[in-house]
Amino acid sequence: MISKCSILSFVAFLAVCRCYIIEGAPSALPQPFMDPQQNTGYGFDYKEYIKRHTQGAPIMIYTLNDCIPCRNTKSLLQQWYPDVPAYFMELTMNLQRPWERRLERDLLEVTGQNTFPYIFVCGKFIGGSSDLMNMHNFGRLRPTVNSCPAKGFFRPNL
Question: Less crowded by CB within 10 Å, the N or C end of the chain?
C-alpha cells in the first residue's frame, strides 16, 4: 500500500529529476516461444526489448518497488543529476503480472546480475546501485552521461 505522502514525494522527485516512469507491460510484446525453463506454457523473450530501451536513454534503470538500493539510486540522481533524463521501469513482482518474472529472467541473462536495480548508462550495463555510486564518487558518471549519444529524447514505445 502506497501512502499519499510517498506518492506526492515521488511525484516531486520526478519533477525535479526529469525522470520518466515506464508503467505496465509492453504493449508490443515479442512473439511467444516455448519456455524451456517451464515445460508448461509459453513465455516471452525481452532481450531485444531491453537492448532497444537501454540504448535510447542516457540512464535506464529497472527497479523493484520497496527496494532500498533502488531508492538510493533515485536519490543520487535527484540530488546530483537533475538535468539528466533517467527512465525507470519499476517492477512489483505481483503474481498477477507474469511478464515481470520473465523480464527479470531476461535481465539476469543479459546482465549476469541477479539483484535490483539494473542500471544502464548510455546503453551499457554498469551494474547496481553501488556501481553507480562508485562512478559518481570517482567522477566518471558526469563525463559518461555528457558524452552519451542519447540525449533524453527517448520515448518508450511500449
Answer: N
- Model pTM score: 0.72
In a domain, residue 152? The reply is no
Please write the tens of the pLDDT for every residue from 101-114: 889 999 999 999 99
Distance between CA atoms of 43 and 35, rounded to whole angstroms?
5
> For the chain, give me the number of helices (H) and strands (E)?
6, 7
Contact, 150 vs 122, CB < 8 A? yes
- Residue holding cell 546501485? 129
Please count the other Cβ atoms lying within 10 Å of the Cβ belonging to residue 108.
13
Residue of 46, 48, 62, 47 whose CA lies nearest to 120: 62
Q: Among 99, 105, 106, which Cα is nearest to 26's?
A: 99
- Domain CATH code at residue 120: 3.40.30.10
Is 56 in contact with 154 (CB distance < 8 Å)? Answer: yes
Closest CA to 80 of 43, 24, 135, 151: 135
Contacts of 49 (CB under 8 A, 6+ apart): 26, 30, 103, 106
End-to-end CA distance of the chain: 26
Q: Is residue 1 part of a domain?
A: no
